[in-house]
Amino acid sequence: MPLHLLAIESSCDETSASVCTDGRIVSNIIATQKIHEQYGGVVPELASRAHMQNIVPVVDAALTKAGVRSDDLSAVAFTRSPGLIGALLVGAGFAKSMALALDIPLISVHHMQAHVLANCIEDPLPPFPFLCLTVSGGHTQIVLCKSYVEMEVIGETIDDAAGEAYDKSAKLLGLPYPGGPLIDQYAADGDPHRFQFAEPQIPGLDFSFSGVKTSILYFLQQQRAADPAFVEKKLNDLCASIQYRINSILLQKMKKAAQQTGIKAVCLAGGVSANKGLRAEFTTMGEKLGWNTYIPAFEYCTDNAAMIAITAYHKYLAGEFSGLDITPSAR
Question: Is residue 97 located within the same domain as residue 133?
């Protein structure tokens, strides 16, 4: 009998549901919330309300596309942490209700673990052990993956995440939210070495991006004081230079981690892994250093339930289930 698993992702501003059958993703539906664009960032209360409106039709669409009835499900999974607590509660409450009503196991999934295992959705799959550079709006980590269910964070940001650095830099340039993808877009036509921004000197494998943001802020203030139209005139070069600095910080730490561990299987994951510049530089570095590199398809980089589903599938096989008393956590 096939193992059908329904997964729900609701950690931020995407309501997503996915069905996994015997370890293969057969549907992955995502409803994006556009309302936050007018506020320049995600408004938690509005996100929670939108999840409540979207979750039933999204789950229904995922089941329909997969050709699976709710009675056929073997388990229900959901994102437990980290994320916006109100948003997480919507997904957790829905998943618990389904598990209780259908009398099937409940599986809770850590959002960042799921980002890592997005690399295990489609062939070719990375061999264990592998390293993963996980980069998102809230997290920046280097993860040593020993198995599907055993991972160790060996480096992380001590202040801001790389995704936040992208979005805050875009805001300083006057770009609308979400600004990270726009920096990537404009950078394609710019000179990445036109402007120089601060490079933090942090020992070990940890990251820091607060100094980079400050460097960009002061530079733009000085240039605008001399020429109010400076950003408009130099937008492509500014975006390319900002992107180069943020990505160089990420990749130099990844290079160091690979050298220290001796691991040649190296993955990229998280929302920022959709950045075309980072994907290209990551692949180029891998070719130079003899890595076997892995990057998820674009649809599995940003928040999605398919990555929750594939993680839950392996937790199911390992017998890692949750009780109905489990509660979401913002961290």
Answer: no
